[in-house]
Recover the amino acids of this structure.
């Protein structure tokens, strides 16, 4: 894979191209396909972790410890260099009931009990991707599908992308030092295949397709759940007007984002970089002007002193 269509001004294009730019076109791809992405419907996730297994098998992602935290039945804990798809198990001790006609959908109008919230998390492939802004080697690049990919053979292990990600997705592999994350199975997309995790999901919790179509489908699903009495259903990461310009991978949640370990109002961390560079440039110019004035004043004074001793 090669970095395509970047010319060193990625920060400006990434941040200032409008509320929902043509991310592939801005990266230099011409006649590109529609932007592709994920819609993860957590209301039908059963926590089977088939997506985690499929991701590891296809992408040759190493085993990541499988350690229980003591806080959940989940044994992969979170996204990282060796976990590109992570299924969270969230236990809630709260009133729960299910509709008689569809026992698979929990609601909050029951008399008591516990409910499980399952959610398969992944890299968000942001519209305004801070990891792209800070990568000094071009290891991170935007594909013709609008996704964000790391080229491990170009990554120098600087780690700048780690704190830049507002979701804490990308990480460095121990003993390796390079950054790794979900590629949305870029190699599969190129030959017309869907990503491994979506292919393996038995309930269609993970749906892959053109992002515009997924957003329409997700809005209809939320309306359906509301009609069924699931008032807590809401979308996360779908809005092009949010702090990252909308995500290429977004979610239907049954509770607040914080419950799933997601930031409630993510903002691209490099948002202020252009203004920072402008202010730094102005400060540097002012400093240079001040130094020039000082040297000029000292030069004139020294010249006057030398002239008076003749």
């Amino acid at each position: 894979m090669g970095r395509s269509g970047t010319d060193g001004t990625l920060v400006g294009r990434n941040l200032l191209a409008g509320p929902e730019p043509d991310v592939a076109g801005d990266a230099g791809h011409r006649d590109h396909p529609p932007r592709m992405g994920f819609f993860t419907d957590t209301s039908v996730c059963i926590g089977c972790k088939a997506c985690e297994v499929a991701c590891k098998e296809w992408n040759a992602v190493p085993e990541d410890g499988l350690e229980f935290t003591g806080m959940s039945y989940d044994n992969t804990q979170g996204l990282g260099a060796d976990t590109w798809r992570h299924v969270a198990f969230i236990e809630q001790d709260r009133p729960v009931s299910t509709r008689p006609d569809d026992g698979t959908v929990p609601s909050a109008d029951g008399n008591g009990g516990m409910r499980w919230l399952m959610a398969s998390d992944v890299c968000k492939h942001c519209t305004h991707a801070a990891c792209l802004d800070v990568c000094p080697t071009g290891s991170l690049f935007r594909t013709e599908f609008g996704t964000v990919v790391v080229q491990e053979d170009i990554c120098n292990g600087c780690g700048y992308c780690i704190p830049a990600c507002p979701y804490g997705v990308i990480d460095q592999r121990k003993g390796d030092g390079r950054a790794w994350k979900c590629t949305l199975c870029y190699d599969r997309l190129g030959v017309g295949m869907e990503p491994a995790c979506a292919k393996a999901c038995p309930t269609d919790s993970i749906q892959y397709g053109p992002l515009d179509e997924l957003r329409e489908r997700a809005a209809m699903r939320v309306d359906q759940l509301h009609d069924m009495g699931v008032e807590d259903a809401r979308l996360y990461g779908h809005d092009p007007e949010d702090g990252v310009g909308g995500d290429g991978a977004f979610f239907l949640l049954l509770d607040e984002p914080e419950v799933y370990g997601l930031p409630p109002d993510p903002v691209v961390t490099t948002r202020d970089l252009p203004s920072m560079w402008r202010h730094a440039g102005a400060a540097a110019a002012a400093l240079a002007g001040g130094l020039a004035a000082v040297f000029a004043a000292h030069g004139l004074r020294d010249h006057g002193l030398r002239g008076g001793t003749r």
Notes: The first helix runs from residue 10 to 16.
